[in-house]
């Protein structure tokens, strides 16, 4: 019986645990501490600051299992997925790391022991091939002399195109900084597969598969050609779980392992395909895994960043389902099946299952309609393709007008051996963006960037007033020694009670003063480590080194504090009422109201809004004490403390707790007790993006004013309805019922009129060669009514032609409808085009039905005769040719 993937994962960790490594948890798929990454794509991501020398590791030896996603940039596996056995969008990286704990000889010995020992993976030694960097003789000698790798299986990889240190076996984070040689371990899966040994064209074939990469970070790259040794050497290794499992379980592809097999079989059950090796089956299986893990990290489909990647993955999978004959919604069912089957190892997926399924189902429903329409349109464009290339205009139309993803168009064109004109498409996209910028009536000023060397000390959590020293003054972006009456500028103090705009909370306002000199502070912002007080001198003057009083506007600050604490109460309440998948996506905290954006795919109905308000006000009445403490980021319990995604946290962080109800990392100002908030009221709920909801709310006195204003409106409405507030609902329901009755009567009268006009039109029809012809001008200016008349007449026609004219707002409209058995004589679109030419109008449609519009015609009787003559001529011509 083959070893399971779960066992292999545990064997790896336990092996390194016995080698005195600390088992460290993998970081989230969405990195909290590196905004440069859309997704975690390697085991070393969470240790980046340690590699860069910015932080020290608590442990010198670490081992991890890291969930990774590679869908863009340097590490983009998306286009390879399904077409070979090696690449996946989502995968698990097994890694061991050393921070000056051991180096090359130990790392290589550990790897060899784990791979070949009968107590562990027990791989045949003769199947393993090794590559090293050509300039790293030390590593080569370890493999050759200590491990006894034969020369024919120990390959040195040189620099590419003679560019120094540019090699597949030389790792570097960027053009400068920590770097070093690497050694890679390959496994030969057998001659029944195609492929070249390492050092050859590795991109083709699946015979030789890289299973482990050991990176020796020992240099600091100063420039293109110069390296200097690092004072402390580091080890970074990575082994893809999916690859090593395929090797140990002795199958040719990761898709045949226990990581995928159950899912592949399920896809085969619902599709019309019987082959395990079908690329669409593999793509769907891979994308099920990646999509559920992305969504479990709080990401929903959108047109930006991680949300766009998720949308691409989901839509690509749905398209491949369609390709293999799956026409019904299927992907969300596969996701549910996968989560259920893997719940023992993926607690987070199990906890967020309902949310994940809802997200996928919603996207699948929306895209299924777009897909059907887009594929039909693309087929039409393929029939008219020139030079074997789909033109840029068609690409742009598919994307902009019909919402069809460009990468899917590219995939489909590739499958049909067509090229695409991406250059023209990109030009059209740029033109559209430029038009949008020009049409935008709003403009945004860039934040003023100041070069300040000052590090201001914030002391405003407890105090609102403090004595300070002026360290710098900026007027018109220039550093000055003095600021005088009437001048606007920025004052930097050594310490301040003014909170600078940060984390969604607006900056404080107030005044800086001494004696009779007053600087009115209108806003406060951060400039590096300096806190800038933005404002104007309204009395006297100020100079550098002046000792001053800095006093915050207490009333405004208090209102801000009430609103900021309320956002924490709201966040915690949303997670209770809607689900733990709720994740903050933005906020605004000011003195008059608060705004909170969060991940949500459900409609926040009145019932849920009411529950939220009751829960928050209940916590306000409990008058809970709010506590803060400074702790090391690495020491916080991430299961109990809410973290914001894509935010880089400092070494020391401030945890704000509202009893046991809410715990978040926050640097903002808050009330001391929830009771100080007074009252909380939601004023508006809206959607601000795909899967992003926004709640706006007010607190305290503003909440009371909001209720009073709405109560005044209710009293006015009650007056209009001649009733009291308590009977408004009953009165409105009665009015709606009466309105429905009147609408029904009106509809009946309209239908009577339509029948009458239709009968009259049929009565007025003339017959030529057994073909009924109606060419009439109707004095009705209702588009819907005209369509109903044409439809009714058409249903009563066995064989004939209908052409109707009518005018709306001095514009002439015309419709033509023809029974199928008359299309051979004349088409609707031909008639419409004839009309359009004669009246300088425009039109279009199909053979059976067409319409158009143009300038009004003064002599309608003459024009109607011309159209009648045109139709009669076509009928006579048809029958004369038939004879």
From TrEMBL:
Subcellular location: Cytoplasm
E.C. designation(s): 6.1.1.7
Cofactor binding: number and manner: Binds 1 zinc ion per subunit.
Signal sequence segment: none
Keyword Membrane among record annotations: no
A GO biological process held by the record: negative regulation of DNA-templated transcription
Catalyzed reactions: tRNA(Ala) + L-alanine + ATP = L-alanyl-tRNA(Ala) + AMP + diphosphate
Cellular component annotations (GO), alphabetically ordered: cytosol
Binding positions (Zn(2+)): 564, 568, 666, 670
Keyword annotations: Aminoacyl-tRNA synthetase, ATP-binding, Cytoplasm, Ligase, Metal-binding, Nucleotide-binding, Protein biosynthesis, RNA-binding, tRNA-binding, Zinc
Pfam families linked: DHHA1, tRNA-synt_2c, tRNA_SAD
Cited PROSITE patterns: AA_TRNA_LIGASE_II_ALA (PS50860)
Key word Ligase present: yes
Enzyme's top EC category: ligase
GO molecular function, one term: alanine-tRNA ligase activity
Alphabetical list of Gene3D superfamilies matching this protein: 2.40.30.130, 3.10.310.40, 3.30.54.20, Bira Bifunctional Protein, Domain 2, Threonyl-trna Synthetase, Chain A, domain 2
Names of the cofactor(s): Zn(2+)
Domain Alanyl-transfer RNA synthetases family profile per the UniProt entry, residue ranges: 3-709
Functional description taken from the UniProt entry: Catalyzes the attachment of alanine to tRNA(Ala) in a two-step reaction: alanine is first activated by ATP to form Ala-AMP and then transferred to the acceptor end of tRNA(Ala). Also edits incorrectly charged Ser-tRNA(Ala) and Gly-tRNA(Ala) via its editing domain.
Domains as described in the record: Consists of three domains; the N-terminal catalytic domain, the editing domain and the C-terminal C-Ala domain. The editing domain removes incorrectly charged amino acids, while the C-Ala domain, along with tRNA(Ala), serves as a bridge to cooperatively bring together the editing and aminoacylation centers thus stimulating deacylation of misacylated tRNAs.
Subunit structure: Homotetramer.
Family label: Belongs to the class-II aminoacyl-tRNA synthetase family.
Protein name: Alanine--tRNA ligase
Organism: Buchnera aphidicola
